[in-house]
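Example (one chain per record):
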Amino acid sequence: MRLADKIRYLREVEGNLRGLGRAMTQQELVGAIQAENASSRTSTGTISQSYLSQIESGARPHLTNTTRLLLARFFKVHPGYLVDDPEGYQAELLSDVRNTEDKLDLWLVGGAERFRRDPALCQALLALANHGDSRRCLLLMEAIIATPSLLDRLLDALRPPAILAGTGAADLNASGDSKTTPSIRTRRRSAEPKRK
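Predicted structure:
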């Protein structure tokens, strides 16, 4: 937000706070600052309506330090607020959980599309994306992976080995065992280097 927009916004807020039901005019703002200075024991300076007009029109891109402190004191804002925001600056909180969850879900759907030739993996990614709290699901997976024996036990208990290995239902015999594909645990053991 530009400085000019901030000053206009603050005039509007101040006008509503004072019961005007509209933004304070520049002249009303100048008068209110002068009245506040007159009632205080220490004079903190003043500002003219033409100076305010130049700031709001963009003819003056910056405030003097004295004017910035004067306006910040009057509007009860931090003096650092009364500058142009850097390009690309977002005032709203971007790291809220819902925004993170949406980005994560889109990423998971993209991954499912990328691995569509692996139906089991594709389905797992889509299930994560469709879950109400996919972030929490992934954090749970990280905790499970950190305990390898738990991972193996959960895989054996929750899914038939053929599905984890990527074979389809047609490859399962009547007992639910895979005819041709060894279990994931067997393949993992055979891939590990032998210890001497």
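Caption: The first helix runs from residue 3 to 17.
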